[in-house]
Amino acid sequence: MKKKISLHVKCPHCRKSLMDNEHLLHGEPSIKLNIVTPEDRGILYICSIYECFDHETNIKLLKDAAIDAYCPECNKELLVNEECKICGAPMISFVLQTGGRVNICARNGCSNHYIAFQEISTELSRFYEEFGE
Ligand SMILES: [Zn+2]
Ligand SMILES: [Zn+2]
Ligand SMILES: [Zn+2]
Fold first, then answer.
1. CA of 80 to the centre of ligand 3 (A)
2. Ligand 1 centre and the CA of 46: distance in Å?
3. How far is the CA of 101 from the centre of ligand 1 (A)?
């Protein structure tokens, strides 16, 4: 059985944790973001389990709508200058507590997300030390 990996992510700007221990999704702290759509603004909670990324929000998210995401701590934008390889929407980028980054597509309904390690060997081994198989 593959163990579920819960990602703990930080803001790439202020390095504060984005995990919300008060708002659990699938039993794990969720990733909390401030979001803006063309119609509204609100809060988005993303499931932190890798390859799940279910989410809840307090506003209405249209299917296929691309969102703008901001850090709730420092209010800086979390979109990066990188296009989703599936749908072309911008990507949202976080820093992993263990090192490396996790990027997710900003378009509601697109399932593209991946983990990128800059220093593959050290960061990957730290990642597996922490989350183990
Ligand atoms: Zn989940
Ligand atoms: Zn921040
Ligand atoms: Zn996409």
1. 13
2. 8
3. 19
Which ligand sits nearest to residue 75's alpha carbon?
Answer: 2
- 78: Cβ contacts below 8 Å, ≥ 6 apart: 11, 12, 33, 69, 70, 71, 92, 93, 94
d(CA 32, ligand 3 centre) in Å: 20
Predicted confidence (pLDDT) per residue in 36-94, tens digit: 998 899 999 999 988 887 899 999 988 888 899 999 999 999 999 999 999 999 999 99
pTM comes to 0.86
Residue-range domain boundaries for the chain: 9-131
